[in-house]
Amino acid sequence: MAEEQFGPALPIIRYSTVDEAVAMANGLDVGLGASVWSSDLSAAREVAARIEAGTVWINKHGAVDPRIPFGGAKQSGYGLEFGVEGLKALGVPQIING
Fold this sequence. Notes:
With 98 residues, the protein is an alpha+beta fold. Helices cover 28% and strands 16% of the residues.
């Protein structure tokens, strides 16, 4: 992919090695979300840890849980939403002393 993908579409791209797939995934200046698909959960976690994205799903895509922070990496997104971290990112504390 040469652009960030939005919508109800999940691009599938052919690759020869895992290193090549990770390089392609990390080669863009965006990184909102990605997914890794594999029957080997341990290997999928290792690959997911190498991908520069705000969220990397394993064997699913786009599952957002309001209890878990969601945000992008690189030029994707505008910060965090959801979860305690998301609430903290949106809040502006005010201290009134006196």
